[in-house]
Design goal:
The complex is a heterodimer of chains A (114) and B (114).
Chain A: E1 5-7, E2 10-13, E3 19-24, E4 31-38, E5 42-50, E6 53-57, E7 64-68, E8 74-78, E9 87-94, E10 104-105, E11 109-113
Chain B: E1 10-14, E2 19-24, E3 32-38, E4 45-51, E5 56-58, E6 62-67, E7 72-77, E8 86-96, E9 99-104, E10 108-113
Parallel strand pairs in B: 1-10
Antiparallel strand pairs in B: 2-7, 3-4, 3-8, 5-6, 6-7, 8-9, 8-10
The chains are: A mainly beta (114), B mainly beta (114).
């Protein structure tokens, strides 16, 4: 069974631009969560989607948004990029993200904002 | 954001010795826990999980112990190998707003000395 895939793996953007990252979950998984990982802040939860609906959201500004499609694939978008948005963006999938659901991560997208 | 990623403690272990990595979790209502291994430049990799109705679970060379009384998790790696060098995170699956969310520990860097 294929794992979680994320595209692109690396991105370089400049301040003010916007970016869209893509995540394909493990087949059959309906929950997709997004995280931002930086050296100083560790793993921070962005949002979680289940059946095309955002179920949970972390404490990030409105510039960060996401969506999920009917095939469970998910995208996240960051508008008006800032230098501080440089990070590894990780996507994780689980069956339903219920109480005892395993969560598996993709390799991440490394975003650099210049 | 919702993370406690600040300073990253480091554990240095001689090759062949056993390693013990500790983690304190935050919510006594959390009922499922995962240990992840993250190598440089890669996404976190699922190692082992444990449910709250257990206090010990063993895998291949790894054992997770759960102490709900003091909200503490530990990961024991037997006969540590150079390939075990990585950052290790614990994650708790915690109920929130009618659904669940994973909260990650700070992470511990494991260095295996030859």
């Amino acid at each position: 069974k294929a794992g979680v895939t994320q595209t692109p793996r690396y991105l370089i953007k400049t301040r003010g631009q916007q970016v869209t990252l893509s995540c394909s979950p493990i087949s059959g998984h309906r929950s997709v969560s997004w995280y931002q990982q930086t050296p100083g802040q560790g793993l921070q939860f962005l949002f979680e989607y289940f059946s095309e609906t955002q179920r949970n959201k972390g404490n990030f500004p409105g510039r960060f948004s996401g969506r999920q499609f009917s095939n469970s694939r998910s995208e996240m978008n960051v508008s008006t990029l800032e230098l501080g948005d440089s990070a590894l963006y990780l996507c994780a999938s689980s069956l339903e993200l219920a109480g005892v659901d395993e969560q598996f991560f993709g390799p991440g997208t490394r975003l650099t904002v210049l | 954001g919702e993370s406690v990623g600040l300073h990253l403690p480091t554990l240095s272990v001689q090759e062949g010795d056993n390693s013990i990595i500790n983690c304190a979790y935050s919510n006594s209502a959390s009922d499922y826990f995962i240990w992840y291994k993250q190598e440089s430049g890669k996404g976190p990799q699922f190692i082992i999980d444990i449910r709250s109705n257990m206090d010990k679970r063993q895998g291949q060379r790894v054992t997770v112990l759960l102490n709900k009384t003091v909200k503490h998790l530990s990961l024991q790696i037997a006969a540590t190998q150079p390939g075990d060098s990585a950052v290790y995170f614990c994650a708790e699956n915690t109920p929130t707003s009618g659904t669940y969310k994973y909260i990650f520990g700070t992470g511990t860097r494991l260095k295996v000395l030859a």
